[in-house]
Hints:
The chain is mostly helical. The chain has helices at about 40-55, 60-80, 85-100; strands spanning about 20, 25.
Amino acid sequence: xxxxxxxxxxxxxxxxxxxxxxxxxxxxxxxxxxxxxxxxxxxxxxxxxxxxxxxxxxxxxxxxxxxxxxxxxxxxxxxxxxxxxxxxxxxxxxxxxxxxxxxxxxxxxxxxxx
Length: 114
């Protein structure tokens, strides 16, 4: 890996809808990545299936995305809370870690796929 310059890009989590007329956005393009964890594979798969179903049935894919969008809003609230300031962000991260380690919070409750 010598001589390689690491690169990273921003993750889009600014969901504003997935269907715009005949255009369907899925996954990161729709802003469905988790604002908390950056995870986006499950949202991409689910939103892709929902878009396909909407195209085939000519209906809105929103019902299939309802659970994912609820989790997305929860992650966005957590992310905004942690963004108040640097100290608050560190404390929020430590609190989540402590809750997970103590078994008071299940990691699956934070995953986008549940």
